[in-house]
Design a protein that fits this description.
By secondary structure, this protein is an alpha/beta fold. It has 13 helices and 8 strands. The protein has helices at about 20-30, 50-60, 65-80, 100-120, 140-150, 175-180, 195-205, 220-230, 240-245, 255-260, 280-290, 295-310, 315-325; strands spanning about 5-10, 85-90, 125-130, 155-160, 185-190, 210-215, 235, 265-270. α3 (about 65-80) runs parallel beside α4, α5 packs parallel to α6 and α12 runs antiparallel to α13 (about 315-325). The longest helix has 22 residues, at about 100-120. The protein is globular and about 50 Å long.
């Protein structure tokens, strides 16, 4: 599986930071990150809400555009090593410059610089989805949306929302999503991970996203599953993340197979790979084992991801060529 080309649509940039990278930067900067790692050097957390806190603590070592340039390279190296040829990553002005537009532009330039280097050296393409943090509230999300709209283009191609799904409601973020949509950005939103089907319905009604982050709890309402299939809404499913966080007990009990069989457009991503002890090749390996998925299914996942990607048509053509079987 490792060598097969893969597309990934749902990856939090800071959440993909290799532990050694965060430890190294913390030492360089003399930042206290006690509590972030366990004795084995792995990210350490008890549940999703604690995970969010540990995530923010680890992110506190990332303080300059240069830090993000190095982070982006480290993350893309890891993704490329697992066969990823195209990835969309959530990037947040909350962490990159405190929502100040001029500072955000500097962070973005550094991230883009790393992306260009990774493209040239490793053949992996990165695009950015600008993402407010839900539990920081709608006012800050507006500032994030303005940063996104002002920098929308070839690299910044999408807008989403991450953070604590249980806080507030999708309609509270309508202004931000309208702002991003008017700037031409693709729309996705985390929903249906920590709240059930009704939150997916509310997200569809308020924000009309073409993609949903996770969305797996749609399985608790088969009428909603059919509606997702009919609408062609693409789910960014992260099975290893769901299992690591205790949403499902094991790979066989994960609903991705049922969603796929019922006609929902599903894709597979890692979310925050080192936090969840996963990689894209591990996701594919485990799904092949648990669900008996053959190569044809994984090719379908790639094609679904390519269709749903937020990048421009020329980039899609280039990625499509890389997916063609070699003679
Ligand atoms: N889910 C929601 N919010 C997040 C995540 C995640 O996996 N990672 C960072 N913020
Ligand atoms: Zn996520």
């Amino acid at each position: 599986m490792k060598d097969l080309p893969k597309l990934e649509l749902h990856l939090h940039l800071e959440g993909a930071a290799p532990p050694a990278f965060i430890c190294g930067l913390a030492a360089e900067k003399h930042v206290d990150i006690s509590g972030v790692f366990d004795e084995g050097g792995h990210y350490s957390y008890t549940d999703f809400w604690h995970f969010l806190k540990v995530y923010e603590a680890a992110t506190s070592v990332l303080q300059t555009p240069e830090d993000y340039r190095r982070l982006t390279l480290a993350v893309l190296e890891e993704s490329a090593a697992h066969g990823v040829i195209y990835t969309e990553s959530f990037i947040s002005p909350d962490f990159c410059g405190g929502r100040d537009l001029a500072a955000w532009r500097d962070y973005l330039a550094a991230i883009e610089d790393a992306a260009a280097e990774a493209q040239a050296k490793m053949g992996i393409t990165l695009r950015a989805i600008v993402t407010p943090i839900r539990h920081f509230g709608p006012e800050k999300a507006r500032e994030v949306a303005i940063c996104a709209a002002e920098t929308a283009g070839r690299f910044v191609t999408g807008f989403g929302i991450a953070g604590d799904e249980k806080v507030l409601d999708p309609k509270d973020y309508l202004w931000s999503f309208d702002c991003a949509r008017e700037a031409g950005l693709g729309i996705t939103a985390h929903a249906g991970e920590w709240r059930g089907p009704e939150h997916i319905r509310a997200t569809l009604a308020a924000l009309n996203p073409s993609r949903i982050g996770h969305g797996v709890r749609a399985i608790e309402d088969l009428a909603l599953v059919d509606e997702l299939a009919e609408r062609g809404t693409v789910l960014e499913v992260c099975p290893g993340s769901n299992i690591a966080l205790g949403l499902y007990p094991d790979w066989r009990k994960h609903p991705i197979g049922q969603l796929f069989d019922r006609g929902v457009k599903v894709t597979v991503s890692t979310d925050d790979p080192p936090f969840f002890h996963t990689t894209m090749s591990r996701e594919w390996d485990r799904l092949a084992d648990a669900l008996d998925w053959d190569q044809g299914v994984f090719e379908t996942l790639n094609r679904t991801a390519l269709d749903a990607a937020f990048c421009d048509p020329e980039t899609k053509d280039k990625i499509a060529k890389k997916l063609e079987p070699r003679a």
